[in-house]
Amino acid sequence: MRAICPGSFDPVTHGHLDIVARTATLFGDVLVAVGRNSSKNYLFSPEERVEMLREACVDMPNVKVVLLSGLLVDFCAEHEVGAIVKGLRFGGDFEFELQMAQMNHALTGIETVMLPTASRWAHLSSTMIREIAGLGGDVGQFVPDSVNRRIAAKVAERRAQR
Ligand code: PNS
Fold first, then answer.
1. Which pTM does this prediction carry?
2. Which residue is closest in CA terms to ligand 1's atom 13?
3. Whether 40 is catalytic
4. In the predicted structure, residue 162 carries a pLDDT above the cut 90
């Protein structure tokens, strides 16, 4: 069965990659879909987030990174996706994800599988990583090296524009 790991991935973290790698052991093939969450201000463009994920997933042969446009459930129907996979870090994630899973199920009957995040990465959040990096902090332990370099370049670019 094909599964999808949708998210903003702004930027992708070790926590996301752990969920993608574990999904790739549970399902035949996996689409990692870079989506847009209308309530978020992004640091990276969708295309940059796709590039960062492609670099990070290069050693996962049954994983493909794609750009998500429109409704997730429509994308799943068009691409023969049987399950949406989400990582859960703590109770707050569950409440939000439960509602989204129920809404997506109501729309087309698609199932959502929730995986507990590895405890090692449970404190990670892309929002916090953006804030720490933007204020000059070191986020190198939370993201792949290639992503860390892109964050540093993006932060420097933003500072130069001010
Ligand atoms: O990492 P995020 O920000 O929690 O990811 C949220 C995302 C992109 C997975 C979610 O907003 C999404 O599925 N967007 C696609 C549009 C859609 O289907 N919205 C209805 C969700 S019930």
1. 0.96
2. 72
3. yes
4. no
Task: Single out the residue of 38, 46, 64, 57 nearest to residue 9, CA to CA.
Answer: 46
Task: Indicate the average pLDDT of the chain.
Answer: 96
Ligand 1, pocket-test mutation among 71, 76, 86, 127, most atoms within 8 A of CB = 71
Mean pLDDT of 12-29: 98
Q: What is the 3-state secondary structure (H, E, C) of the chain?
A: CEEEEEECCCCCCHHHHHHHHHHHHHCCEEEEEECCCCCCCCCCCHHHHHHHHHHHCCCCCCEEEEECCCCHHHHHHHCCCCEEEEEECCHHHHHHHHHHHHHHHHHHCCEEEEEECCHHHCCCCHHHHHHHHHCCCCCCCCCCHHHHHHHHHHHHHHHHHC
Q: Is the CB of 17 under 6 A from ligand 1?
A: no
**For residue 36, pLDDT beyond 90:** no
Check if 72 has its Cβ closer than 6 Å to any atom of ligand 1: yes
pLDDT of residue 39: 77
Pocket flag, ligand 1, residue 43 (CB < 6 Å)? no
Residue 86, φ and ψ in degrees, nearest 5: -130, 145
Atom number in ligand 1 closest to CA 38: 11
